[in-house]
Amino acid sequence: MEFSFIPILLSLKVAIASVLIVSCLSIPIAGHMAKREFLGKDVVESIITLPLVLPPSVIGFMLLYVFGKNGPLGKLLESMFHIRVVFTLWGAVLAAVVVAFPLMYQSVKAAIESVDPNLEKAARTLGAGEFKVFLTITLPLAWNGVIAGFVLAFARSLGEFGATLMIAGNIPGKTQTMPLAIYFYSEAGMTWEATILVSIMTVFSFLVIYGLNRWGKGSKRRAKRGSLDD
Fold first, then answer.
1. What are the domain boundaries of the chain?
2. Taking residues 61-79, what's their average pLDDT?
3. pTM of the shown model
4. CA 158 to mean position of chain CA atoms
5. Distances from the Cα of 170 to the Cαs of 68, 206, 230, in angstroms?
6. What one-character-per-residue DSSP string does 9-68 give?
7. Given pLDDT bands bounded at 50, 70 and 90, which one contains residue 208?
8. What is the pLDDT of residues 172-191, one digit of tens each?
9. Domain topology for 6-229
10. Counting Cβ atoms within 10 Å, is residue 7 exposed (0-12), middle (13-18) or buried (19+)?
């Protein structure tokens, strides 16, 4: 087993694809859940955030059961579209989406709930429909939470291990992301190679957290200056 930088590239591909999918799903769902009350809402919200507390191996088992060769969705995708998820990079993307979605969902939902409803009501009285209000009033005012969720989801997708191992496997050059490579380098006694990847992930994670904190403080200062100018 030789050292390779390919896991870094694969991890970035998985994280980027995951965040794009998570963003498309979490923003409308969080908007709906923040603004609507319906029977069973607590149950739905519990299901959405369940991956935050479930062990990654449990998530991986569930995905393998559903998307495996004999699973309901696995059979459907392979028979109709000739798409196989298990032991492919798409399996790693799917695992990352499932574990990262609750993080972005909670961040976006909290940001949307913090928007002043009077501003939305004012837009409605001027004739704006719900979709336009969401796009032009709610989403821009909740943008800080959206960006924070985006960054957290990206970092979580980059570090996903357990569920990825179960559904995508550890195939060097194909599905072996950085966390998987670190684990198997360590198992093989390749301490120096594992250290390189650990250092890269540690520095990157630190920069993500540091940048997010700095950006959040800057946003607060700008908002404070804006309120003083008014």
1. 6-229
2. 92
3. 0.90
4. 9
5. 16, 26, 57
6. HHHHHHHHHHHHHHHHHHHHHHHHHHH---TTHHHHHHHHHGGGTS-HHHHHHHHHHHHS
7. confident
8. 999 999 999 999 999 988 99
9. MetI-like fold (1.10.3720)
10. buried
